[in-house]
């Protein structure tokens, strides 16, 4: 990464005057954006659940009765299940592409905006200057975030429908009662909602962490201090890293803050390791 001479000059002046730089403000996690994303994903799952119950769930009695009839193909109802699942799958693939492609791009922009505000808050507090530069990489990064998340949204649907289709067909053949099947459908969608919540938390933290890293490296910062969310949800290995210094080019096990699954930690920029480049002269 190129050196940002505005930062080098600011660090040099403060060190000459005060010695060591003061600690930067806390880098806030985008909790409100995470809640918004969770709500969107839960709406997706709720709609899928309703459609599943309306198109397949209400015909469970019919399927069970057909299985009991002594006919050459008494399991012909399985063809109907296959077709209905295929129709649902295509419908929600289209929905994910049309509705959630734009939504995830806007979500990424919101994360980037908040992250940028945090970066500006830090540099203004420590140096009294704004280190934000032109960021030509941001567009492709947000497109990649959107593409990955649309794929994850589709995977929520795929896993639910695959599990339910296989389970319903297997259990109707073995004489399972309709009440048991209805309970299983509800439990499957409860599991899907939990997975949706985890995806939202994980993806928001990952993008936030990646933006933090890129913006610090763009400014010529080579290392950071690991900071946790300081609550009971912090995993033990991350709690042990609180206050420790790490290099951006040498990630610890599990990755930098935000990279590990559902990580809410953040990287406090280490301005104190910035040194004047050879031949640098203040103007």
Short description:
The chain has 283 residues and is mainly α. It has a domain at 28-222.
List the helices and strands and how they pair.
Elements: H1 5-18, H2 31-55, H3 60-68, H4 77-127, H5 138-173, H6 178-218, E1 223-227, H7 236-239, E2 245-247, E3 266-269
Antiparallel strand pairs: 1-2, 1-3
Features:
single chain; 283 residues; mainly alpha; 3-stranded antiparallel sheet; 7 helices; 64% helix
Q: How would you describe this protein?
A:
This protein is mainly α and 283 residues long. It has a domain at 28-222. 64% of the residues lie in helices and 4% in strands. The protein has seven helices and three strands, in the order H-H-H-H-H-H-E-H-E-E. A three-stranded antiparallel beta sheet has the order 2-1-3, with helices on one face. Helix 4 packs parallel to helix 6 (178-218) and helix 5 (138-173) runs antiparallel to helix 6. The chain is elongated, with a radius of gyration of 26 Å. The two termini are 23 Å apart.
What kind of sheet is the major sheet? 3 strands, antiparallel
Strand content: under 5%
Number of helices: 7
State the low-pLDDT regions, or none: none
Output the helix-strand order. Answer: HHHHHHEHEE
Order of strands in the sheet with most strands: 2-1-3
Distance between the termini: 23 Å
Structural class: mainly alpha
Averaging pLDDT over every residue, what do you get?
Answer: 86
What is the total tally of β strands?
A: 3
**General form:** elongated
Q: What Rg do the Cα atoms give?
A: 26 Å
The residue fraction in helices comes out at 55-70%
